[in-house]
Amino acid sequence: MVMRGAAELMTRAFLLFAALLLPLNRRRKGSGLRLLGSRFLPGDLTVDGTLVGGLSGIDFDPVGQRWVIVTDDRTTGAPARFYTATIRFADDRLGEFRIDSVTRLAGVTGQVEPSPGSPDQKPDIESIRVDPLTAEIWYVTEGDGEAGQAPVLAVADSSGQVVRQVPLPSMFGLRKDRSAGPRHNQAFESLAFSPDGLLWICLEGPMYEDAEPPSEERAAPVRLTNLDREGNVLRQVAYTLAPMRGSGSRFELAGVSEILAIDADRLLVIERQATIGRLPFPRFSIRIFDVDVRGATDIQHVHSLQGIDYRPVRKRLVIDLGWWNAGLVTNFEGLAFGPALANGHRTLALIADNNLIRLLPSQLMVFEVLDPGLAPDLRP
Q1: Quick one: which of 245, 268, 94, 133 has its CA closest to 190?
Q2: What span, in angstroms and rounded, lies between the C-alpha atoms of 336 and 40?
Q3: Which pLDDT tens digit goes with each residue over 64-79?
Q4: Of the candidates 12, 36, 154, which has an alpha carbon nearest to the alpha carbon of residue 95?
Q5: 3-state secondary structure of 3
Q6: In angstroms, rounded to a whole number, what is the distance separating the alpha carbons of residues 369 and 373?
Q7: Gap between the Cα atoms of 79 and 151, Å rounded
Q8: Is 342 buried (19+), middle (13-18) or exposed (0-12) by CB count in 10 A?
Q9: For residues 43 and 355, what is the distance between their CA atoms, to the nearest angstrom?
Q10: Model confidence over 112-127: pLDDT tens digits?
């Protein structure tokens, strides 16, 4: 069979490797999750003239029975956008995964839709959620510290028209002088709705005034914030990032790449580490934690976490994603609960960001949630 190109060849290689590892992965016990499979989209896939890549957030709309997936493409190749996707399940396995359509977002930064290559508007959308009360689309952008562009929390209708922005606390403004606030490229990667319709947002890394980034010798706190639907802070707590598992001579990064609410006080958190050493290929460590905020110190009025006593959230490891236990592991940035399987167990989907590299496939990984305590209660 003649391959259509290098991107397709790479995609088939990834899929074959993941399929070979699947029987081994399914025998793992104790995590509360069971791997249903991985699927890959070619890195050069296009839909309606847009490159499907940089997939940074995913969510499931239970009313419309559709998946939405957002890209963090900073309008370098096409306007800000999200995709509608189909994910099917066959018996106890992951079936078809396809991108059905694209919706372009109008008014991402409160202005006219940014055009490809626009130098002054870089939305960098990192998480997307379907409002459980209205079915509107909520998303958060990371902003741009070097340009002094603040993060944005916004709401769009189903056509992609932004209907409002939700004000974020002033402490999260990005400063060019790097004297305070979130670090560049370490602001918001995550957004979650709790079942009661309230919001959680989490910084990717520590603010300048709170701590240095994690290293092999030290952990670091990030701020996890509970908001009402008007953007008012209800509570803010500290989540502790683990020390780095290894160093990268050329690049290293650690932080929270997504959160997902189980109930009003518990969340699943993706903690991601990435390093680049001598070889020009990044290594990723992806761990999912069950986090309980009850009993944690409310730090919303604390200017700096350095030198003070406070109680962080409690965290429990759910699963450690390494090639030896979960197939191929790439840059997972999105996390969402999906529909229930025939046995009543919820599904849990992760989506990976390929950084819009055409030779690197976009990866979807889906688990069956075996532990009912790790998913929202579906009973009325």
Answers
A1: 268
A2: 17
A3: 999 999 999 987 667 8
A4: 36
A5: coil
A6: 9
A7: 18
A8: exposed
A9: 10
A10: 344 444 444 567 899 9
Distances from the Cα of 365 to the Cα of 35, 87, 96, 124, 312, angstroms: 8, 11, 12, 23, 30
Residues 129 and 145: their CA atoms lie apart, in Å, by 24
Amino acid at 231: G
According to DSSP H, which parts of the chain are helical? 6-26, 323-326
Q: 3-state class of 19 per DSSP? A: helix
Distance (Å) of CA 35 to CA 259, 330, 364: 19, 15, 11
- pLDDT tens, residue by residue, 155-166: 999 999 999 999
Task: Tell me the backbone φ, ψ of residue 117, rounded to 5 degrees.
Answer: 80, 10
Q: What is the mean pLDDT of the chain?
A: 87
259 neighbors 202 (Cβ within 8 angstroms)? yes
What is the Cα–Cα distance from 144 to 135, expressed in whole angstroms?
28
Q: Which region, left, alpha or beta, applies to residue 65 given φ > 0 means left and ψ of -120 to 50 means alpha?
A: left
pTM of the model: 0.91
The owner of tokens 């997939």 is 55
Residue for token pair 């370098």:
76
How many of the other CB atoms lie within 10 Å of CB of 98?
A: 12
Query: Which pair of structure tokens corresponds to residue 340?
Result: 């229930």
DSSP letters spanning 165-176: EEPPPGGG---T
Between CA 314 and CA 306 the distance in angstroms is 19
Strands (E), 262-377: 266-276, 283-292, 314-321, 332-340, 346-352, 362-369
| DSSP characters over 106-120 | B-TTSSSPPPTT-SS
Q: Which residues pair with 214 in a beta bridge?
A: none
- HSE-CB at 110 with a 13 A cutoff on CA atoms is 9
The count of C-alpha atoms lying within 13 angstroms of the C-alpha of 302, restricted to the half-sphere facing its C-beta, is 21
